[in-house]
Every structure is written in structure tokens, then in C-alpha cells.
Amino acid sequence: MQYKLDKPIHGAIGTDKYQVTIEWRNGTFVADEPVSSGGKDTGPDPYTLLLSSLATCTLVTLRMYIDRKGWDVPGITVNANMFQAKKDDVITHVFDRDIQFSGELTPEQKDRLLEIAAACPVSKILEGNVKVRNFLFRDEDTEKKLNYTNGDVTVVWKPEFCKHSGRCVTQLPLVFNLQQRPWVNMSGADSERILEQVKRCPTGALTAFHNNDEEAKA
Ligand code: SF4
């Protein structure tokens, strides 16, 4: 399992209706809801963000293809919008993408570019098999806990909380490996890398502490 983003986007909301701060790898931006939905319209709403993703992916994909072909197209525009269609109680979300090119293109070239747009990665995601997984972080204590240590740090695993996201075993298999016993091999990486991986557990099933800190508390 290889995530698309090295660092996940991070969204947060407080009590200010409905301003959301999104942190991405190179900065932050604000999203919101329109006034008609109780927000202040200080940033794009979720549907606008979704359509922006489609428009951006379309434009970048087309630009890459056109540049590779060496065609003279100084500008491309996309208008994107969506609606819901209901037939026999089945709701279909329909995305419309209106594309225009400036420059001289033959009808055949335009047809080819339409095919390229239709196959952009975000189009494929929207039209493909999609699954949304949800993980809740839990910081409660549990009775069943298993400890693994390398003498420097200790990893604590709470099996009841593990929802098998696969993050630990795919991202640090030399330490977290279900085929070996114990399944946590504390010699597989240095302490800092192990601690970093533990922080990526989305459910709280994995936690860790420096042994020195615990000894100091005792
Ligand atoms: S990252 Fe956490 S929830 Fe996911 S498999 Fe590992 S222990 Fe379980």
C-alpha cells in the first residue's frame, strides 16, 4: 500500500461556522460553506474543491500531453460542474466538464485531447471503484496491552483498537510483520523511525514511550 501523498492533508475546524483550515505539504488554505448553508463563504466549499480537483487534473494532463506532442496550444480552459440524476431510486452523480483550447488544432487533434481528458487520473478515480475508510483515534486505556522494547523505547499495542489499516505493516515491514512472532521486531529500525511510524497509527492501537521517561516517572 503506497499512499499518493507522503504527508496526508490535515483538516481542522473549531467552533467558527464553518471555517476549515486545510494544511497541505506546502502551506494552508481555508475552506468554508456558502452563506446559504450557514457558512461565511470565506473559502471553497467541498463540492467546489472536488470540482477543482477534476479541473486541475484535466488541465495538467492535457498540458503534459500537448507539450509532449509539441502542439501549439497557448491556453486551455475547463468549466466543471455536477448534478444528481435519479432514476428508479438510483442516484447518479454526473460531472460535466466543458473544455476549450486556444490555438490551431485539427478536429482529430481535438478528439484525441477529449480522450486524454477523459482518462485523467481524477476522472478515473471518480468513475472507478472507490472506497472510503474511516478510522477513529482512541486514547482510552485497555486491559489488554502488549509491550515490545529495544531497551530505549517501548511500543505498546492495544489489539482491541487495531482496525487493520495496514499502515504499520506496509510502511515499516522490518518492524511490523504479521508473519513473524512476536509481530513487532524492535531491532528492525532505529528508535526514531519506530516512533515516527507509531504516530501514523490512525486508531491509537500503537503508542510508544521512551523508557527513560517512564523510569523518571517511577
Ligand atoms: S497502523 Fe495501527 S490500526 Fe493500522 S494495522 Fe497497525 S496497529 Fe493496526
How would you concisely characterize the structure shown here?
InterPro entries: Divergent_4Fe-4S_mono-cluster, KH_dom-like_a/b, OsmC/Ohr_fam, OsmC/Ohrsf. The chain is of the alpha+beta class and 218 residues long.
Q: What is the CATH-assigned architecture of the largest domain?
A: 2-Layer Sandwich
Strand content: 15-25%
Rounded mean pLDDT score: 96
Helix content: 25-40%
> What's the CATH class label of the largest domain?
Alpha Beta
What fold name stands as the CATH topology of the largest domain?
GMP Synthetase, Chain A, domain 3
- What compounds sit in this structure? iron/sulfur cluster
What does this structure look like?
Residues 148-208 form the Divergent 4Fe-4S mono-cluster domain. It holds the Pfam family Fer4_19. By secondary structure, the chain is of the alpha+beta class. It folds into two domains: 10-127, 2-Layer Sandwich (GMP Synthetase, Chain A, domain 3), CATH 3.30.300; 146-217, Alpha-Beta Plaits. Helix content is 29%, strand content 24%. It has six helices and eight strands; from the N terminus they run E-E-E-H-E-E-H-H-E-E-H-H-E-H. The mean pLDDT is 96.
Give the topology, please:
Blueprint: E1 10-13, E2 20-24, E3 27-31, H1 46-69, E4 76-87, E5 90-101, H2 107-118, H3 121-127, E6 146-149, E7 153-157, H4 167-171, H5 191-199, E8 206-210, H6 211-217
Antiparallel strand pairs: 1-2, 2-3, 4-5, 6-7, 7-8
Residues 162-168, 201, 203, 205-206 line the site of iron/sulfur cluster (SF4).
From the structure above, extract its key features.
Divergent_4Fe-4S_mono-cluster, 218 residues, 6 helices, OsmC/Ohrsf, 8 strands, three-stranded antiparallel beta sheet, alpha+beta, binds iron/sulfur cluster, OsmC/Ohr_fam, Putative redox protein, Alpha-Beta Plaits
